[in-house]
## 1
Amino acid sequence: MSQKKKRIALFLGGTSPEKEVSKSSAKSIYAALKNLGYNLINPAYGENQPENADAFFAKEEFTEISNRNYVKTVNSNLLDNVDLVFLGLHGKWGEDGTIQSLLELRGLKYSGSKVLSSAMSMDKDMSKILFKHYGIPTPKWFSVVGSEIDKIAIAKRIEEEISFPCVIKPNDQGSTVGLTICEDKDSIVPAIELALKYSNKAMFEEFISGREMTVAILDDKSLPVLEVRPKHSVYDYECKYTTGMSEYFVPAEIPEKVFKNLQEQALLAHKCLECEVYSRVDFMLTENNEYFCLEVNTLPGMTSTSLVPKMAKAAGISFEELVEKIVELSL
């Protein structure tokens, strides 16, 4: 590999509800980085890092975790002489621009998109505003800050603006954490309460019935479109991270024109958020082949069931080559 002399620090774990997914992603990345100079770091541990690599991937935390430790980690000598921090983090403090900001203050390079792009993609409300501005179809929606929520008024807005069923979810979480499909008024209150456990802002979105499509972007080029067919009615947390709970078809079996349109719209979504290096753009495709962009993931999953590695493989790129490409582009 061309980067053998580079020192890579792989960040994993963290404090978000997606920390276990992060550990799974990082385990695959760790194996791919075996030919590089690397060290593992969980920023939620601060300066107290395990000596044994297996401890980083264990479900039980090695020591107490905290958001404050992210700052201690970046300020410590753990990152002395590091050429690149490979971000295997997911969720808050990993994808929202926070860790990116800290690393930039330290003068360190890191994998993936920069601060503003990460923040915008994690803020579902902001990203959808940009989608609309750039003419990218996206489901109808509105967002409300937790302190301003009037549940009676919300029910009326849902009926008038997006109708039932609808999707209620946290504004800044991934992996369908805190997401509920609401069929009627009676399910609104518990759905809002669940969403607000993970964010101070809840999003109310039109439910689009159809097929789950996704497109990976690597080096400003679209990889083949992939279709996900989950065992559940929604591509939820269990279907995303449990082997056998979803089927994957890549290239997706859709008309060529639709295939190309999805690739074009994915690249436009990636660019309108000013993303860099790589991302994954998710869509819903109706039975009439209308497509709706749901979100852009700037640090998409890299587990054994993850989508970006599957699309890369369909394009003739092995997992190891994918990781190396991300390192090269980030440097």
## 2
Amino acid sequence: MQKNIDYQFDIKGVENDGTFTGYASVFDVVDSQNDNIVKGAFSRTLRKGAGNVKLLWQHKMDEPIGSFGIIREDAYGLFVQGRLLLDVQRSREAYALLKSGSINGMSIGYAVTKAEYDDYSDIRYIEEVDLFEISLVTFPANERAVVNSVKEADGLAAAIESVIRVLS
């Protein structure tokens, strides 16, 4: 069974070279699909090597926009460091949207390999997945999927230009 699921994407920074960091998945959060990914769910993928996990735009298999340098689990979720390929038009658009805060979600594409279903709560607890892609998305299923902060390295250049104009 293949499924896409949206989770919180907490950007810690976006650099001028298209590099960003954040969480592609957060553990113990019930999303709008009534799924809850539990800690350790990505271990299988990470053991096999996460080098094949693709960075896509809106889950479009024909729109890769970059690659990942780091994908790892910690106590909070699935931490990623990605880099947008700024030679690609869609990546430049994604970069601008990230910096502006217009895009604030990330979604994972995976196949469930182990899960338990709670009939009482109607929640599926996903214990193991094969992760194959992570996408930047506009509308994540997780309502808490928001960008908390974006560091813009080019903001310093703009500030310096303003000071020069005032001093001129």
## 3
Amino acid sequence: MGKNSKNVKSNKKRVFVAFDGSNFYHLLSSIQIRNTLEYDYMGIAKWLSGEHYLVKANYYVGVIRYDSRNPAKSKKMISAQQKIFSSLRKQKINLIKGYILSYILKSGNSFHEKGVDVKIAVDMLVGAYEDKFDVLILISYDTDLLPAIEKVIDLGKEVEYVGLRRRPSYGLINKVSKSRLLTNNDIEKFTKI
């Protein structure tokens, strides 16, 4: 396939999709997608990559720890999370684990992750410095990532923020190369039935 094939290939950019797992889970929940085991994470990563070449899709999440003060609830939560991890692995999504310090940092009914943002930032920066991608697609609402985003852009990479149209992060929109705000329908079409 001569010249034309080569030109098409050279126009394709290498894409790294980074899911902030907690943010994405809450995004799915906010539009009533409850069965996250049946969600097509790789499908949406490929769709977001468009005509470009998806080189990596990472899902960053805090790991739920067993808590002896509430064994039944923690066992149930751990089991549910392990099922999601299994689904992600089957879809060839890289699982990057942080930590959840359950009752130490528990407020109300929510748990706070530790180490997830740092892992996202490190992977963004290392990938940019080592020229592992051309475009980073970031699915997160976390403005703590802004310094890393700015450096990745300084290194000549594109950073695309992906959020929900009805709940955008203007802090991220104002700093990234471009942004894409999804509708409920965009997200729902990757629900496996």
## 4
Amino acid sequence: MDLFRRMRQQREVNQRLEEIRPRLYRVAYSWCHDPHLADDLVQQTLVKALQNSGQLRDAKVMDAWMFRILTNCWNDHFRRQRDTVDIDDVPQWHERTPEVEHGRDQIVARVRQAIAALPDHHRYVITLVDLGGLSYNEVAEVLDIPLGTLMSRVSRARRSLKESLLDLQPETARHTAQIRRIK
């Protein structure tokens, strides 16, 4: 008897699926306006419904259950169809290319060498003023020297750096910002 009851239930489910199929198609078509996609969505809905028919406990809510499956299939379609860009269509220009970065690294290394080559008293003032951002008064206080001496040392240190880095001027203008003076 159990076998006959299951066969009868399966026939009823198949009949209900055939009845609801045109309604599912109309709704899917109204969403996508593409007959082939609508047909695919309905097909996916029917396959999922048959695979998960054991989850349906009340046959009265079968229509709502089927339309929920259709909605999920529609949402899945959108997840799969997210806008993608072919990597070959993306312009490969960027400001920070390896060549530019290498050039900047070379400039930084040259500036560091030039600063390291300065006499200690010039290196101290230039790093405290230009790199440390301290005011002239603060640097004079830190180094315990008169303000005029500090100013002349900063001037001489900058002039010495400029002379030793003169060959980098076109590249520094292109790759780095101007040195700012902090007083």
